[in-house]
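mind reviewing both lines:
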Amino acid sequence: MNDEKLIAAAREAAANAYAPYSEYEVGAALLFDDGAVVTGSNVENASYGLALCAETNAVSKAMNDGRRAGLVAVAVVGPLDKGDGAPITPCGRCRQVLNEIAQLGGTDPEILCVGNDEVRRVKLSELLPHAFGPANLT
């Protein structure tokens, strides 16, 4: 799968976001080494602290489908008409959640941080250096 298709899958997921409070719809698409793509969107809650990010929902969906390895890339998109148009990156919580599934499979996925006119490509290890994960507990 190429970057454009992965980004399109994230945009399609963002269309399903439930974001009545922030009106900031986010979509994420996880690409696995077997070509499977798992998507998620943000789900807000009237009790703001209970909101779930797109990346967290996608990882949860993947884990519930039995996926524990093979994460190679993640695309994260936000709305084209909000903010300054700069590429968005996963929040700290999502970086940790992505790290869990990446460490389980021994991968360092590339994160495609999508903006209006730019796609910033970074490794998860660059976004979350010295990460705490499953290996720290053994």
Summary: The CA atoms of residues 36 and 60 lie 15 Å apart. The chain has one domain: 3-126. The chain has a mean pLDDT of 96. The longest strand covers residues 71-77.
